[in-house]
Amino acid sequence: MPGPAQPTEEATALAAAIAEVLRDGDRQVAVAESLTSGTVASHLGAAEGASAWFAGGVVAYASEVKFKVLDVDPGPVVSARCAEQMARGVAGLTAAHVGVSATGVGGPDPEEGKPAGTVFIAVSTRDGEEVAEHHFDGDPAEVVQAATVQALRMLLTTIRR
């Protein structure tokens, strides 16, 4: 199995589909990542034509980075509210049309009263935010991989609308 920073077949295919939808460059995407530590951005950046539609991203692993850089309200960071604010914050920071974020608990131990594998993924557009809570099984690397794939899926679904 690939490590968390290694491309997976499914994630690579999702990034290619995202690139196809955004190929004309009329919309830009940005990412804010905590739990996934840049893996979503690395898949998007490796996709064809990314320079036309990928604005960039912020790896905000530490809570203080979320608060100071992404304008997340201080408080729990393993939450839907945090994921929504991260996605909105990175879109605003980069002037992107769409922001996607991932925050959660990779494990092996719980955090903020949430069990390992709890992940919140959000997508922000100029029309608002959508957030989903997920519970993934596996070790931290497997949780990161599953969260990366799910974030790319959610992004693709949003941009296809």
UniProtKB/TrEMBL annotation:
Pfam families attached here? CinA (PF02464)
- Supply the InterPro entries for this chain: CinA-like_C (IPR036653), CinA_C (IPR008136)
**CinA C-terminal domain span:** 12-158
The protein's matches in SUPFAM superfamilies, at most eight in alphabetical order, are given as: CinA-like
What is the protein name stated in its UniProt record?
Answer: CinA family protein
